[in-house]
Each structure stands twice: as structure tokens, then as C-alpha cells.
MerR family transcriptional regulator (Pelagicoccus albus), 315 residues
Amino acid sequence: MEQNKTDLAQEEGQFEVGAVARMVGLSPNTLRTWERRRFIKAAHRTASGRRRYTQSQVEQIALLRKLTEAGDSIGSIAEMPIEGLRKRVLEFQTRSTEHSANQTKLVRILAVGPKALLWTSILPESFQASSEARETPDIVICELGSDINSCRQDLAVIRHEHPNVPLAVIYDYAPRGAISELSKKGIFLINAPCSAELMAHYIHAAIAGSSHQSAANAQRSDKSPDRLFSEEQLALIARSNPSIKCECPHHISALVASLVSFEKYCQHCEIESPEDAELHTHLGNEIAKARGIVEKALLYLCTKDNIPYSTEPAS
């Protein structure tokens, strides 16, 4: 009789803990623990206290299982709507596909400009970045600084020498007009610094012919504190394998690099927009103070976790 009730409940879209556990590949105890900690909630309980889950809840639990196995913590994703869970699972699957492709194909990158070469140096071994094209590259990545004219010239040369090779422009802080101009031309834009994983994703997307338009980001005075890390040192820290089980070294080094870029951008604005020089001087000073604080935090982290970095002073 009880089995008949269970079958009827399942036909009506209601599933007991045991059935759900078998369907999604989790133990009943895990489901009960998740519910006790309010990560999931049964649609209702029977008069005898048995939990019942709907079909959509079964899908939700299955997605949660996939994401926790992929590395997400249950607490960070439990409240996501089911569409968000589906999207995140798809992201993991895309990254897995890209990772598999990376293992079998070497991606050759022609990096035009010192920063383009520096930023692509954080990529895994399946990418090979060089400032010289010894053979036809899979993609050309050109650097955009504060001078759009220099970038235009580089792009013209690249298109002449490598007419059928995918092209991307990488930048940190650049004039809004320059970003808008490149965006309208359909050029793939990469806003750096970013993680090695995200950089790899952007490069694969550019090679595949996707479009990515980064938002434009609109730099330092004589009073700013001395830099503790050069761009080469920051790149070295970003590539390190810390003993702590987190991404703090990468995130903090990326933050420092971003603040340094904004300081330099403010310096450029002081020259290009004399009428707003006082404003940009103030912004540069304040950002420099913040950069100094974050650099000290990064130095503390490197010291505590024995993360190697060059001891040469930053320029």
C-alpha cells in the first residue's frame, strides 16, 4: 500500500528522499544535511513527516551536485535560481572543453607591445606567446596604451602582415574614445589584468570569431609612494603556486597592477586635459595611496607564504 502511494506521488511530480537520492547520485543523508542547513527545502511534507520534492527541485539538486563536484561550495550556490545554476554548469562544461583542447593543441600568440607580452605570459603551457612571428600565429594580440595613434599603426601593420589571423587588442586603462573606436570596428577587446583562466577563455573566443567588448575605463603625482613591485614581479607572483589554498596572491597582484595602470592614466589625463589637471592630480594621488597600502599587503602575503619574487626595486 505504501509503495502504491509512493508511485502515485512520483506520477504527480512528488518524490521522496530515497528516490531523489537515486536520481541525482547523492546519499539520503546528504540531502537531509542540506535541508537541515537550509541549502534546499522540500516542497512539502506528508502527514507522517516524509519530505516530498518536485521535478524542478530534483533538477536543482542535480545541478547543485554537479557544481559542488566541480569545486563550488554548496553555501555559495544554494540560493542561485535554477537558470543561474544551469548557466554555471554550462560555464564549467565550456572550461572543461577548452582545457581538453588546450592539452592537444598549442596556441601560438604574437604579442605586439611589452605589456601584451607580459600579460599573456601568465597563460598555461598550452599557449606560447612571443614578440616575434617565427611562424604563422594562431592569434595576434596588440597592446593599447594611452596613445591610440600608435595602436592604429600597429593594427595596420598587423593586418598587412597577417591578413587572415584573428586579432585582439588588450588594454588596462585607455581613453574612452579609443575603446569606442576599436569596438565599432568589431575588434575583440580584452581588459587586463585578468586571471590566466579568463585570459585563456578570451583568446579561445577571439580565435573562434566571437565578439567581446569590454567597458571603457576612463594616473600619479610626485607625492605618490614608491612602488614595491614592478610589472614583471607582479606577473611572477600571479604565476606562482602558493601553499595557501586560495587565489589571494593572484587577485592582490592583479589589483596592484590595475591601480598602477590607473595612476599612469591620470598622468596622461593631466597632459591631455590641462583644464582638468587639478582633478586628475588629486585622483592620481589618492589612487597611489591605495596602491601603496595594497602593495604592503601583497608584500606581507609573499613573506608569510614564501612566494618568490625578484628583490630588484620597481621602476
Observations:
- The chain has three domains: 2-100, 106-208, 231-305.
- The chain is about 55% helix and 10% strand.
- The longest helix spans residues 277-305.
- Residues 5-12, 211-222 have pLDDT under 50 and may be disordered.
